[in-house]
Design a protein that fits this description.
Radius of gyration: 17 Å
Largest sheet: 9 strands, mixed
Number of domains: 1
CATH superfamily: Acetylglutamate kinase-like
Order of helices and strands: EHEHEEHEHEEEEHHEHE
Helix content: 25-40%
Strand content: 15-25%
Shape: globular
Strand order of the largest sheet: 4-3-5-2-1-6-10-11-9
Oligomer: single chain
Number of helices: 7
Structural class: alpha/beta
Length: 244
């Protein structure tokens, strides 16, 4: 059996990717497929933390003229809803899972500390991180990379609704170039919409590795953990390799 490439990862799930195409908030059949791949990772000896967005419930400041802070507070609460749903699915899939929230809400989740998150990971639990950073103005991407630094994750796995990072939106530009490797500096210089800019700069300054890939096939989670060339590897230095 091949050995995992990473010992501890933080998986960032897109909220939009969890919604059913027919409408609604959560596609539980799809969530169980995701859970199955996370269980494979855990059984291979990988410690897995998960942070989830909330685009399936509330996307940014979609209320016209709404106060920025209140809108972001709604988004943070929506991530906790998604986190509790993930916990339920993970438990039913045979894994031990705990929700740690950046905002205290003891009736629903335990309070987040890096110490508690690391302890739970070392006990073999899947750690689900809710409420982002607990403060407005920061995206879930930024929360993901900061938490990854705090829990000393080997890599941040960015599971998106697109299969890799491109030079442009491939849905709008058929000539968009698909990257198999790229640096944070390239993302900044080419103004690519790969990660939130705050998250990109944080990763570059703190030498955090990220891997962006599509969640349409949940098995990609396991493939990336095992070192297969899926999606786009993002690093601090080196040149970009372009796939065909």
């Amino acid at each position: 059996m091949n050995q995992p490439k990473y010992r501890r990862v933080l998986l960032k799930l897109s909220g939009e990717a969890l919604a059913p195409e027919s409408g609604g908030i959560l596609d539980f059949d799809f969530l169980f497929r995701v859970a199955g791949q996370i269980r494979r990772c855990v059984e291979a000896g990988v410690q897995v933390a998960v942070i989830v967005g909330a685009g399936n419930i509330w996307r940014g400041r979609q209320g016209t003229g709404m106060d920025h802070c209140r809108a972001d507070h709604m988004g943070m609460l929506a991530t906790v809803i998604n986190s509790i749903a993930l916990q339920d699915v993970f438990l039913r899939a045979g894994m031990d899972a705990v929700v740690l929230s950046a905002v205290e809400m003891e009736a629903f989740a335990d309070a987040y500390t890096a110490r508690d998150a690391i302890r739970a990971l070392e006990e073999g639990k899947v750690v689900i991180l809710g409420a982002g950073l607990g403060t407005p103005y920061f995206s879930t991407d930024t929360a993901a990379v900061l938490r990854a630094a705090e829990i000393k994750a080997d890599c941040v796995l960015m599971a998106k609704n697109i299969d890799a990072i491109y030079s442009a939106d491939p849905k709008c530009n058929p000539d968009a170039v698909r990257y198999s490797e790229i640096t944070y500096r390239q993302i900044i210089e080419e103004n690519l919409r790969a990660l939130d800019m705050t998250a990109t700069i944080f990763c570059m300054d703190n030498h955090i590795r990220c891997y962006a890939f599509g969640l349409a096939d949940p098995e990609n989670i396991y493939r990336v953990v095992m070192g297969e060339p899926v999606g786009t590897a993002i690093s601090c230095e080196g040149g970009a390799a372009v796939s065909g």
